[in-house]
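Consider this record:
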Amino acid sequence: MDKLYEGKAKILYTTDNPGVLLSHFKDDATAFNARKRGTIVGKGQINCSVSAHLFRLLEGAGVATHFIDQTAPDEMQVKTARILPLEVVVRNIAAGSLTQRTGLQSGTVLKHPLVEFFYKNDELGDPLVTTDHIELLELATPSQIQQLRELSLRVNSLLQRFFEQCGITLVDFKLEFGIDQTPGSSGGILLADEISPDTCRLWDSNSSDPQARVLDKDRFRLDLGGIEGAYQTVMERILAQPV
């Protein structure tokens, strides 16, 4: 295998099959556009296992993803895809940067899910962009933008119901998508990257304490401590639910 790409949380390797890549999940942790760095022990295995379980859930509901199979605790096979340079964030409850930009109080339940697009560009700090910006920069076509919005809302609906069964509130989350490049494919849009405590803001539904309820990377961002235990709790609750 040859290393194809290394990002903040994963390493992609080529395989003997041109349509299949191997994604290795790292224990490295970053926040605030990598200005804060650290290690979360066991994160790679937890995020890989959680992502695999949730990809299976979504595939079963008809959402096309890049997931093929989990081949090791911290590795999965994925389809070859050209990743779109956009992060799609879906918000159900005001938290994080949304409260800073709007003045909404943290914890405010939104009247309907909010979909936001961010330009994946480290040098620019991954800025928030409008659909007009996306078209201007040719990051995606109008048709693709509409598909991304519709797919993200569908994923949100499916994940909300699933997380409720786990005793977890899905506050917000980030998705990435790619164009299928496996040989013989139709070049459709695939849900890619990962779905994990790194990419979701998750609150314990059984706790009302603003700090104790946090089960995601905010424990690392905000120095709340107990990060490994929170990730472990998420994994145990998710894997306990059949898909």
In short: The chain has a mean pLDDT of 97. Residues 3-81 form a domain with the Phosphorylase Kinase; domain 1 fold (CATH 3.30.200.20). The first helix runs from residue 43 to 60.
